[in-house]
Write a structure and sequence with these properties.
Elements (H helix, E strand, L loop, with lengths): L3 E2 H11 L4 E4 L6 H7 L6 E4 L3 H15 L3 E5 L1 H17 L4 E7 L15 H5 L5 E4 L6 H13 L6 E6 H5 L1 E2 L17 H11 L5 E5 L2 H5 L2 H11 L3 E3 L14 E4 L5 H8 L4 E5 L20 E6 L13 E4 L2 H12 L17 H12 L5 E4 L5 H7 L8 E3 L8 H11 L5 E6 H4 L5 H7 L5 E6 L4 H14 L19 H7 L4 E4 L5 H10 L4 E6 L2
Length: about 525
Amino acid sequence: MTARPAKNAIFEQFAADGISLMFGNPGTVEQGFLDVLEETQAMGYILALQEAAAVGIADGYARAGARPALVQLHTGVGLGNAVGMLYQAKRGHSPLVVIAGEAGVRYESMDSQMAADLVAMARPVTKYATRVTHPGSVLRVLRRAVKTAMTPPRGPVFVSLPMDVLDEPTTEPAVPSTVPSKATLPVPGELERAVAALRGARRPVVLMGDGVSVSGAQAELAAVAEALGAPVWGVDSSELNIDTTHPLYRGQLGHMFGEHSAAALEGADAVLIVGTYVFPEVFPLLDSPFPQGCAVVHIDLDDYEIAKNFPVDVALVADPKATLAALAERLGPGEPLQERAAEPYGDTMMDLFAAELARRAPEGLVVFDEALTSSPALLRHLPPRLPGSYFLTRGGSLGVGIPGAIGIKLARPEAEVVAFTGDGGSMYTIQALWTAVRYGVAARFVICDNRRYQLLDDNLEQYWRERGVASHPHPEGFDLSHPEIDFVRLARGLGVPAVKVAKPAQVEPAVARMLAEQGPFLVDLVTT
């Protein structure tokens, strides 16, 4: 192979892996390879005005496209800005390939400006983190990063690229990365153990998560649930893992308090866990929520998560799709199911807006849901039914809705993409609107504006109830009402047309205008 600078060769490697976009925010120590990028026809650069926004856009792009997304950060200061979003990506298993520059290996002992241990910073929020120290291994390390990011359980990876290493020549060939298949099926004996644990259960329960979506196992999951007659609960479930109108679907387990999970499992004599860890709460139970004598079967490709917190009876490190199909065949068909009664609709502003959107939206609508306290009303009118039609916030980081929708629209430009976020959450990454305008990304953004961190109000009230604390005024720090945030002027200042919707009569024209816009559009929906 002809020698060329490693800063040129990395773009050959990205092209070999089909990576055509870099999401980032530039910096001095990355200027060498960013200068080369300008001459690279096969690579586009999506500029964000802050690193958290760049990672959020890449996260949406990776989720919607089920492919690696390349993120460029600016050394330690940029990585520090991105840590919260990287945690979100790690919890959600997004295959991000994150690179950042350094001044150079030659300066390592100088403790100079911007010096930091980037690998140590990245390790807690990534699946894999490393640093290249020799030009002869730059492409090898990048291939390892792509492989690691894309191998289930997927997740973000980090590679530090010192400037002096990239300036040196390399003769490494650029060849496609190898992503190993983990589409494994348990041996027959293990399948029979699972069937024996589940068959005959009087009160079975299914807990499912995003490993189902990654495997494409939605139909197989429904078939097993029907064979068992088991209610299905989402656990760390942020994508479409089962049609949410299915008669057996019961909703999401709570993400805050372990008592909610225990209540869903009360009386269960068999539990099937597929494609998720248990349990996802911020305040989980330390004692097992599984009833005494309950048989537990856990299927996942992430062996670390199986029996991590509580023992299980049958532990299968296997592909959910193939394994559920085999279980469904062995269990046989279930009893006919009755359709669930329709949930009564409310008359809140969110109900009115979601109902109008449901009436007008084209086929193939994609929703990014960071609405949090407004989500129940949203889902009453727009229940997710098809894979790829719904993406939920995950991991606890606020601010994913606006950039996430931009990334989804970049990955799937033919789809109508609408993000719902909160007034507080939107302010974490509001500058992502500028990126949408710059690149003509016609995503839509709805800010559910209740002038508070309402979720904190709700969680605090739960805290009071648990501890017998008398109700009293909420902390002043939860209030966002003064000074009032003018989202319409803020959006317009970043180039996005916007309207405020504060009365029911304004809903219909706002939805019509939003869907008719040729570019991005924002609605400030007052929900108080």
